Amino acid sequence: MNMKAGLYKYLLYGCVVWGVLFGFLQYTSEYHFYLIEQQQLFLWDRYYWLEELVVPGGIATLLAEFLVQFFLLPYAGAAITALLLTSAGIGTALLLKKIVSANRLFLLSLLPVVSLLLIHLDFNYRVSGTAGYLLLLVALNLTVRIHRYGMRLLTAGILAVLLFYVAGPVFLLFAGMMFLYECCNRTPRGYAMLLICAEVFLLGIWVVSLSRIGEFKFIFLPDGYYHPKLDPKPVLYFAWLALPILLLLAFGIRNRKGLSGKMVWVSAGAQLLLVAGLAGWGIRTYGDARSSRVKKLDYYVRTEQWDLILKECEGELSNYLYMCYLNMALAQKGELGNRMFAYDQRGASGLIVPWNKTHTVSILLSDLYFVVGDIGLAQQMAFEAYVGSSGKGNPRMLQRLVETNLIYGEYRVAEKYIALLEKSWGYARWAQEKRGFLYHDEAVANDSVLWKKRRDLPKENFLSQIYGVTEDLFRLAENNPSNRTAIEYAGALYLLNKEHMPFIELLETYYGTEVLPELPLHFQEAVVSFWENEPARWDDFGVSTPVRQRFVEFKKQVLANRHNSGALPNLLRRSYGNTYWFYFMFK
Fold this sequence. Notes:
mainly alpha; 31 helices; elongated
């Protein structure tokens, strides 16, 4: 009966914890998991597996990458992560129950859960760290339940080596926990457990000496579960510190008289407050709320939900990345020249954000250049993003490399990338569809996207942006006059920089040609602004009657309130905040 009651207790505990974690993660981090899935590409390929299996911790890595591939699905990321964290809580609770029979620290078993939750919010953390932590808890629970010390010592020695191979750095935490357990348990000859500590240190030194792993911190510390080129935040170590602290606390109260009556509830309430307080502080301190919008916008681009990008970017924008996503969505919808100033623009960097060699910006620029039609730079940025991912490559950028090589007619290169994607779970069908374009120019010509982008290719090779980004955009427009996006991007760059003369030269060169048969709305507004007192020039560039009338009304408002310059921007914003005139005067 007691055993059945205990089982129900842990089932209830698991369901409640999982439900809370799932709800929190799905609500706050839905797009975080989509981004995590893009950090690595799990392949159903024996050579890929063998490459992982020869590295310490490779099995945990494979297990984690197997799970992460399903983050592609809605709700899966939150559900799987919540399950991993809940399992860590149950494993910790079972370990404490072995020490404190009354299990008076039941709720404190959530400390490792909270600690792991906080580091999961960092997209540079690898899920293999949590997989390894669960294997550590399994090893600890098995070992401490062996009654004979000699057998326990032997088992600990074997499991330490297995953990080193299977899970990586957690083998050191296991050895330290077992030594601490024997010391707190006052086991005769418990100091012999130091042999296990010596064993793991020698094992780690040996592996580093063989250059299998470059640095000791990747062998002995949780740094091995973090992006190798970045310094981790302190939260990475919280889960490793939580276990020995809980072990010491459990032994500290083991022989004390049990609580009864109201004190049981007081103790439970205090534990819950401690856990909740740590969670609240940790989320505020280590949460990645600042990047949540970028993650959402990145997902919308990947799934081509352009209208949702526009909706997300309404109101004030404080980041050039947001503006870059916004303008890319407008360009994709063919509305850049007509609607860009309906949104918060802050300069040319919001149109084409400068490349800073980071993974996120490389992906964004690859998408942007692909939309504009600069296939060479789209391919370059895709390659930069692919090799710069923290895992085994970015599947979306691999798709981009397939597309760009099909556009170039480099079918052998495209076939190599297609073969990789065909070994994945989430992208195999897409890759098989693209295989139909290999060595088949007619099929490419019948595809609206690939053929349009192939028409954007320059007639002659040249170094990208050697004469500036606008010169490249002019080349794209001239190569494919139907590509209005390129010429609108060039004009938008001039307008955002308030460069009048280059913009006038653009109009005089391209207006009335196939490239620019008529001016978009904001280009017309710029014409009126530049030649305010020369209506004849308005006729030359086909400025519409509504634009002319609106400018007259705008000018009247400016003149009527010219003595109240401080309030003028707010007075004009409601009626004219979506015009180039407002941007030119006040931004």
